[in-house]
Specification:
The strands form four sheets. A seven-stranded mixed sheet has the order 2-8-7-6-5-3-4, sandwiched between helices. The protein is globular, with a radius of gyration of 21 Å. The protein has two domains: 8-48 and 293-396, Aspartate Aminotransferase, domain 1; 52-289, 3-Layer(aba) Sandwich (Aspartate Aminotransferase, domain 2). By secondary structure, the protein is an alpha/beta fold. Helices cover 39% and strands 15% of the residues.
Length: 397
């Protein structure tokens, strides 16, 4: 038999966050002590979901809610999502689909929108899932670059300059992964005006919306208008500490006469894949409507770890780390002669500290960065940053 050749669409799929794990596992097998700062999974460390969420899932399973759910999700969960969205000010909600993590929602919505050769404006740096999905669709990534000098804010003029006849949508990740930037209302209004001017759909990825530092304020894009089509992605994984539950959702808002065919198309695909995990959907109402004490506690802990991260990294001459305003990532600039990917690989081999190269998230040409997850406890982080400092001193001094 002949060798099976994979489809050409997989050649451009990259997911740097997990691609570094292969090398890390090789190094670990040699006996080196490892420190994983690459994956944003709070459960690996000292964070746990609220018990009432666990109880809700257990009770659903014991009640034999173990078959298929409605394709768009159970009604009580969709009602809770709708109520929270309204509390956040989202206007003219047209539909809600519960998905297998926010990731599936993103994939369904991109697939339902794009023809081969069309493009979506994606933030750089930004979450690499978007570009991986678009590679499968033979669609084009149209990158726009965040303004590092302005706290990683959106550069509206840069975004507008990149819109062309085949542009269908703009993605905004807010708070941003990997930079931790949180965008002001004024900037979001400018993005909405671009969408209005060029007849574009807006995708607003708000999965970290509750993880805001320093009493920061958050504005949901969908709260700022009712005449522009917006799809808001969110889920339980980060703020409610259950990434393994794989439960997210997509909220469609805006003028129904513009969105109806698109919403119908996405729902066709949702029906074809049957449903998201049924019993786990019962955690949504208890999460959104129940006590939120864990978020306050989580933020207090993360603030200490964020400040430690920023302070220790900025003590290293080759690093420049802006203060993250949300999520649990730092994205420091590297002032080094090497490629950031080579730096990351050698750091893993020599110290066991696993980070992710900034080029894996997209970045402005000529710049170099790392993404660091500051979820581990302070002792682990201090040791990791001491190891990074020693590595840098040995390599460049």
């Amino acid at each position: 038999m002949r060798k099976i050749i994979p489809a050409s669409r997989v050649k451009n799929i990259r997911y740097a966050i997990r691609e570094v794990v292969g090398l890390a596992n090789e190094v670990k097998a040699s006996g080196k002590k490892m420190c994983f700062l690459n994956i944003g999974d709070p459960n690996i460390f000292d964070f746990k979901p609220p018990q009432h969420m666990i109880d809700a899932v257990y009770q659903a399973m014991m009640a034999n809610k173990n078959g298929y759910s409605p394709s768009s999700g159970i009604e009580e969960a969709r009602d809770s999502i709708r109520s929270q969205a309204k509390r956040n000010g989202i206007q003219d909600i047209r539909d809600i689909i519960i998905t297998h993590g926010a990731s599936e929602g993103i994939e369904l919505c991109l697939t339902g929108l794009l023809e081969a050769g069309e493009n979506v404006l994606l933030p750089q740096p930004g979450y690499p899932l978007y570009s991986s999905i678009m590679a499968k669709l033979n669609a084009e990534v149209n990158p726009y670059y965040l303004n590092e000098e302005n706290g990683w804010n959106l550069d509206i003029s840069d975004i507008e300059s990149r819109i062309n006849k085949k542009t269908r949508a703009i993605v905004v990740i807010n708070p941003n992964n990997p930079t931790g930037a949180v965008y002001p209302k004024e900037t979001l209004l400018e993005i909405i005006e671009l969408a209005r001017k060029y007849n574009l759909l807006l995708f607003s990825d708000e999965i970290y919306d509750k993880l805001l530092f320093d009493n920061g304020t958050y504005t949901s894009m969908g709260s700022l208008c009712n005449d522009v089509p917006i799809v808001t992605f969110n889920g339980l994984s980060k703020s409610y500490v259950v990434p393994g539950f794989r439960i997210g959702w997509a909220i469609f808002s805006g003028p129904i006469e513009i969105m109806s065919d698109y919403i119908d198309g996405v729902n066709k695909m949702a029906r074809a894949r049957l449903s998201a995990n049924h019993p786990v959907q019962f955690a949504i109402k208890t999460a959104l409507d129940g006590p939120q004490d864990h978020i306050k506690t989580m933020l207090e802990t993360l603030t200490i770890r964020r400040d430690l991260t920023v302070n220790m990294l900025n003590e290293i001459e080759e690093f420049d780390c802006k203060v993250p305003k949300g999520a649990f990532y730092a994205f420091p600039t590297l002032r080094i002669p090497d490629k950031d990917e080579d730096f990351v690989k050698d750091l893993i081999r020599e110290t066991g500290v696993v980070t992710v190269h900034g080029s894996g998230f997209g970045q402005k040409p000529g710049t170099k960065h790392l993404r660091i997850v500051f979820l581990p406890n302070e002792t682990v982080l201090e040791q990791a940053y001491d190891n990074i400092r020693a590595f840098v001193k040995k390599r460049y001094h």
